[in-house]
């Protein structure tokens, strides 16, 4: 159940098309479903406006399938699955409809989301091609929730003229996600060029002194550009989710 469905039930009670007893039955559904290995939060859509997301890493293929089926059986049209392995995709897709993007490891169970009527404009930029898997996690997450996404890939500071070539896209964005490893300078450069929020995503791309993304994380946290916020290393999902929230305000 999401906020729209809840409002529809309450409106039905108000105009007399649904009895209070029928409404109580609809709303009475347990706020979570205990599967033994997981407690599926069916009321998260009411509280937060978006249903629970399945984090695939560390879960067995069977666990992912059972959680996704529980959510679909409870009325969710689509279920977002992050960090989903190829083996999990092959297993789950035998039982339920499933879109899978191998690069970002994003899965969408149930109906595939389309962005034909998407909202606003989110620009997702990467420093290099190696950052694209994290960027696609952000992009597909934002598109899943109904935002329009523009991708600007491989526009890092080692050839900053590539970024300047897309200045029109940057200055017309409602929010920008800057994804970069190495020294993570892309977020500061972008932040100094635009008047919208910039979400910086450090990636683990880089040589030894990159410390698996720590150098990019610290650079982004220390950015002198105003309006730059930072999510965790390789957290494309978190950036895409937040960008969607900002885009829809």
What tags apply to this protein structure?
single chain; 249 residues; 4-stranded mixed β-sheet; 38% helix
Write structural notes for this entry.
The protein is of the alpha/beta class and 249 residues long. It has 11 helices and 11 strands. The longest helix has 13 residues, at 3-15. The radius of gyration is 20 Å and the shape is globular. The model has no long low-confidence stretch (mean pLDDT 88).
Indicate the proportion of strand residues: 15-25%
- What string gives the helices and strands in order? HHEEHEHEHEEEHEHHEHEHEH
Rg of Cα set: 20 Å
Number of helices: 11
The biggest sheet amounts to: 5 strands, parallel
Secondary-structure class: alpha/beta
Note poorly predicted spans: none
Q: Could you tell me the mean pLDDT? A: 88
- Major β-sheet strand ordering: 8-7-9-10-11
Gross geometry: globular
What distance lies between the first and last C-alpha atoms, to the nearest angstrom? 22 Å
Structure summary, number of beta strands: 11
Helix content: 25-40%
Concise synopsis of the structure shown:
With 249 residues, the protein is α/β, with parallel strands linked by helices. Helices cover 38% and strands 20% of the residues.
